[in-house]
Specification:
Elements: H1 3-27, H2 37-45, H3 50-76, E1 91-92, E2 95-96, H4 101-112
Length: about 120
């Protein structure tokens, strides 16, 4: 496995196996009177049907994927947010890895069916 694939796999797993799973687990808990952002979202989701709640929870993965894609595309030099028009040099273990990070990430996202 190439270093760029190792980096993308690590980021992908962190985002979708850890963070997304933690969000969804928190949002599926029982309603309560807490006032933190998770409780507010959880209480709002509890008012939805199971099917609608699942759609919203799946959308979390779309938002995560799109956010990571923008960042990786910016580092790759394939996406230029406003006021960022230069090139980055991304290295890992002394090897340059940018150029395909966004493509590799999107491929994994599509393989997982996140955009479906």
């Amino acid at each position: 496995m190439n270093l760029d694939e190792q980096v993308v796999n690590a980021i992908f797993n962190e985002l979708f196996e850890d963070i997304s799973a933690r969000y969804k687990e928190s949002l599926k808990k029982t309603e309560n009177n807490d006032v933190d952002v998770y409780a507010k979202a959880r209480n709002a989701l509890a008012k939805l049907s199971d099917a609608d709640r699942d759609c919203v929870l799946k959308f979390i993965d779309v938002a995560i994927a799109d956010s990571a894609s923008v960042i990786l595309g910016t580092l790759d030099g394939s996406h230029y947010p406003d006021n960022i028009d230069g090139d980055f040099i991304v290295t890992y273990k002394d090897d340059e890895i940018q150029g395909s990070l966004q493509d590799l990430f999107i491929e994994k996202v599509e393989d997982k069916g996140i955009y479906k």
